[in-house]
Amino acid sequence: MSRHAQKLRDHDINPCVAETDATTKCLNENNYKKDMCTAYFLKYKNCRKFWHAIMMQRRRNGVKPEMPSADERKKILESVGKPY
Prior knowledge:
The protein is an all-alpha fold.
């Protein structure tokens, strides 16, 4: 697996690994008919938007690292409910 692919699979770097996997699974099961997986695409897009907003807020506040770790993200999701 390439270094880039490993980064995308790292839960500390990519907060939307589960949504990515669900989207890929849907595409595989439906012969890559994108219209059959619209809900999965939307869920992934909302996940990315949510965590991007968190990352930008942390950047503005000077918090490092900008992307919360997997444990921190779990606590954030528990406190706000799953917004996507």
